[in-house]
Specification:
The chain has two helices and four strands, in the order βαβββα. By secondary structure, it is of the alpha+beta class. It has a four-stranded mixed beta sheet with strand order 1-2-3-4, with helices on one face. α1 links the parallel β1 and β2. The relative contact order is 0.20.
């Protein structure tokens, strides 16, 4: 579980790597937000995929609870959803801290 950030869809939260969870929390704090301002809803994506295909294996809906802004990122092998989130966070897509 992301420290202090709410994760919805508990059945699927194991899909997100612990390193991604820690990186997400670190970036949120680094840019002045509180981790508990964010909720993550993690859902497994459907369809067959090979292990090395780069096809997303899960979707992460990130919502800033205070600003009510949310975006969806796709994760899995070879995908960097936290980096994509960081670009949006810096661009102000989730509001100001």
């Amino acid at each position: 579980m992301v420290e202090n950030a709410g994760i919805l869809g508990d059945f699927h939260h194991h899909l997100v790597a612990r390193g991604d969870q820690l990186a997400f929390t670190a970036e949120v704090v680094r840019f002045g937000f509180a981790p508990d301002e964010f909720a993550l809803d993690v859902e497994k994506t459907r369809g067959k995929r090979s292990r090395n295909s780069g096809t997303p294996t899960y979707a992460v809906k990130v919502e800033n609870i205070r600003s009510r802004r949310s975006l969806v990122y796709y994760g899995g092998p070879g995908r960097a959803w936290v980096a994509e989130f960081l670009c949006d966070l810096i661009a102000g897509e989730f509001g100001r801290p």
